[in-house]
Amino acid sequence: MTQQDDQGIMVNIGGSSMVSDRRTHMEPIDVAHARFQKVKDEISTYADSVETEADTRLKVIDRIVTEVLLWPYKEILTEPPVSTGFVDYSCTVNERSRLIVEAKKDGRSLGCEERPAKRGFKISGGVFTSQAVKEGIAQAIRYCGEKNAELACVTNGREWVVFRGNRLGDGIDTREGVAFVFSSLGAIEREFTFFYNLLSYEAAKTFGYRPYFQESEGQPIRLTVFNKSLRKQGSARFLERSELSSDLEKVMSSFFHRLSGEDDPDLLDACFVETSESRYADRQLARISENIVRTIRDLNTSDASALTNLIRRVSEVRRHEFVVIVGTKGAGKSTFIKRFFNSVLPRQVSESIVVARVDLSEAPGDTGGVVTWLSDALLISLESAVFPEEPPSFNQIEGIFYDEYTRLKKGPWAALYNSDHDQFLVKFGDWVETIRREKPNDYIEGLLRYIVRSQNKVPVVVFDNADHFDIEFQQKVYQYARSVYERTICLIVLPITDRTSWQLSKHGALQSFDHESLFLPTPSTDHIIRKRIEFLEDRIEIERERPDDRYFVKRGIYLSIDNLAAFTRTLQRVFLQTSSISTWIGELANHDVRRALNIARAFATSPHLAVDDLLKSYLAGSAIEIPKSRAAMALIRGDYDIYPVGQHDYVQNIFNLNSDLETTPLLGIRLLQLLSDVPRDEHQGALIDVERVISYFNSSGIEVRAINLWLDAMLKTGLCLSYDPTVRDVASSGQIEIAPAGIRHLFWASGNFEYLSAMADVTPLLREDTFDSMIDDLRNRRGWRAKTARFLDYLISEDSSYCVIPSHLAYESQTRLTKIMQGTLRQLGGVDNFEGATGG
Predict the structure, then answer these.
(1) Is the pLDDT of residue 130 over 60?
(2) Closest CA to 299 of 478, 466, 517, 504
């Protein structure tokens, strides 16, 4: 939200930059400080008139709370009733009380005139002894209890006493806590940042005041600046390969390039996976169905009868239809459409249509110019579809614009037509060319009419690959497709992602128009890879008849047919017989086909996979099994000796998702554990309100700001998903759920030795003694087990400092998670077993 000061500076209370009409950029605290100086100066001019409590509130406290601390008026309640009286001020965030302010008149001293601002004084100690301050503190504590607000303040306009009036169940007596004092407005000015970070609306929203109280009360807020990992970011070394490995890497890279089908349309058509929708696709379908008026029905990809019947209906009834094919990005929507019109659609139906495809992947991506680009691209595509052999002749052009031709010869150009027919034709040809060049939409409409009237067919226009671009771009494509749909009898086919369908339905576009919606489920990763490998093996058998008996791979590389065939069989064993690998790949890709193939390609070419062993295997004709530890290492480290921090698109360091605020390093997997515990609803999936997640862990003593920061990182890295698939920041997310990639990280982080060892190398450690011990483990050849055990022990210890799991059934899985990690520590040998050891 924003507020505006009298100088025109716009203040975004959420903490982002302020922008005025003069393009002035200021942070909230800077705006607040400037306002405070102004308010302080003005108060000094009428200080003598501040006599009663009402004067103090009106002339001082009201101004500081609203103008300086930036509390919005709608979040401030004055005199709300409670059972023991009336609260002077109850300041709320989203209608939940966060701050209680008790006002005393200026003449009643709080006894804090000489106290330093940044020192915490015990509430029950010898500082707060005046009658006014004792009365104010007692009232504030009562009101905080009734309103369940945490923060409290007692002030007479000059002196300000700030403390936690509610401990929120931490078991410590409220009066055993500390309070901070500001002895005067001058003291506030000297320590303004501290004052603002305690009492501002921004601090209340993010609980930014808590670290100050925790530090003063001796809770785990480190005063040291130690923050160091065994291997610093950027130190990952690219692993060199042997000559044999390098040559094999080229072959394997080429093979996976072919496996992607980027240069082989036949592969995509032949390997389209015909499958029933998975549970994951079911959830996606349920979400979309909530926002689309038309019921989305499953698409039977084996015969595509739904789309076949739809085309037959358009052709017979002579009316237009708009088809939306919905699927996750990478679900094979483009392949489905090409395959459908090329080979699935019955011949008698296929002969009654003309298909024009606009490939948006070739568009420049400029949202502002997309309509012009679409008009040009559709015109060319339609002309090619209607006249595939050569450009239209004059007679055909005359047929396209027969209505206009007749109108002109009988009307405006009748004299020319009757006196000089040839010149009339020349002028008409120029007119058509002008229309084609300057009014492409009119030309497109003529082509569509020509298909219907002259060819007695139905035009089918496919707007493909719009999901390569952002939502705004896709919305423009949808709107353009609707405009084409309205012109004449036609069938429009628009593949869109679930994200786009959500956005369009949210803005009412899909509800506003009739359309037919078909859902295309995402096939499983192992099924995709299996079918493509089998296709390439079949292709090799056909190409074996080539005279030179050699197979061109890529960029001048040749391999004999026998060797390549053996190589593909080895790959089958790697991916299909080692089922966990394909499962891992699918999860890390969140079941996106393109991402899964990219991961598979990077995995197969990783030096940690030891391609030399693959070669030996298929030359010897023996089966190969990749140990899970080596497979995990290849996926996690890729081409480097350690996990490449900041360079991995699919594997994240779950122990260091955010370092802006100190918290338990196990917050990531604790969040994932909670999300995985959410009961799965048939239509809603496993969604949970973000507010419930925050409340759940706040009860464990974890900072709300830390929870928000880590959830935000998890959304951006795909470890969890928002209900609104267009949202990737926690501030805009209402509900979230765990992603397949999050499930994989939860399992790995709680028990996979390779993952734990890799993250032990790169996770910043906040305890110097642990860092030194892990370095000593490696120096004295105690090995990765000792290092990893010590790292895991550090994680568990740090977690206990920041997180207290309640003894309640709702937290049973969190307690179990701790026990699982302790069990993993025992499997590694514990820490004590490595103390004093000299061998690894």
Answers:
(1) yes
(2) 517
